[in-house]
Amino acid sequence: MTTELDEIDEYTLITEEKGQEKGRVLLPTLLFCATILTTLASGALQQGLDIFHDPAAILQGYPFSIAIIAILGTHELGHFFAAKRHRVVTSLPYFIPGPPLPPMVGTFGAVIRIKSPIIYRTSLIDIGAAGPIAGFIVSIVVTVWGLHLSPVLPTPSGEGHLMFGSSLIFHGLSYLVLGPIPAGYDVFLHPVAFAGWIGFFITCMNLLPIGQLDGGHISFAVFDRFHRRISILIIMGLIALGFATWPGWLVWAVLVSIIGINHPPVYDNHVPLDGRRRGTALVTLIIFCLTIVPTPVYVT
Fold first, then answer.
1. I want to staple 78 with a disulfide (CB 3.0 to 4.6 A). Which of 5, 130, 143, 239 is the partner?
2. Which residue, among 13, 3, 139, 19, has the nearest Cα to 75 in the 3D structure?
3. Among 262, 285, 281, 85, which Cα is nearest to 203's?
């Protein structure tokens, strides 16, 4: 038997739940649409198009937009589905739009929020590694596609040219797709190849074993009480690289320090890691070594 008051309360509860569900979907959707717009603009600007005098030209940026969103989306969906498999509650992926004007690329990446505790270290490795591994695979596909579209031209003479360093994986793929580059020549990256380069760089940044980055999750699951020391050591390494190679490492060292170098404990720390999880951790270490670039950007 249900009283009128019970019916009102039940209606109110259902209405509130629908409103909360709509809010959980609305913001990620709006951010996703905004990121499509900013990455379209970035892709068009990379091709030298004047989107301010010809707004319709923004649509020509679709190759870069599709490529970078595919990489970011696959990365975050890797986390999302791994979390679902371990019954960990998360948000939908939040894409973060950014300025499209060079040297920015129209996005600051994407994130998901973990809303419930992670019980086991095995779950921590699965969730932490799923994103970088998935994003790495898509970055390989995007890079091969983009390199096929990239011309090999004489290196510009003079100074003031923006150059991008190559990771081991990017250098290897360039060799496989384009062959050896003659002296005095260089690869001029098509926007799709540039998206692949960004994908590898983002993968590397996420795999840094610091705090609650993806690499931090994996480091905590494997090394537990040594996690904080490892985080501090890596931040010191970033600072050293910042003075020796690229100042951007200093900015990243500050950002991750502000975000935090500690990691919350798992609920049950007594379940040991099996061979498959240790193998997964080793795979992410290999991916990190393949994607790291000591000097990502420099000017001739």
1. 130
2. 139
3. 285
The residue type at 223: F
**pLDDT for residue 9 is more than 80:** no
Give the number of residues written for the chain: 300
- H/E stretch holding 242 reads helix 227-244
Asked if residues 139 and 71 have their Cβ atoms less than 8 Å apart, the reply is yes
Which pLDDT score, from 0 to 100, does residue 23 have? 56
- pLDDT one-digit tens code per residue, 204-247: 999 999 999 999 999 999 998 899 999 999 999 999 999 999 99
Query: Structural domain tally of the chain?
Result: 1
pLDDT of residue 6: 44
Q: Rounded to the nearest 5°, which phi and psi values hold at 96?
A: -115, 105
Torsion from C-alpha of 67, 73, 78, 82, nearest 10 degrees: -170
User: What single string gives the DSSP state of each residue in 107-126?
Assistant: EEEEE--B-S---BHHHHHH
**Helical packing angle, 121-148 and 62-85, nearest 10°:** 160
pLDDT at 1 over 60: no
Residues spanned by the domain of 88: 4-299
Burial class (CB in 10 A: 0-12, 13-18, 19+), 137: middle
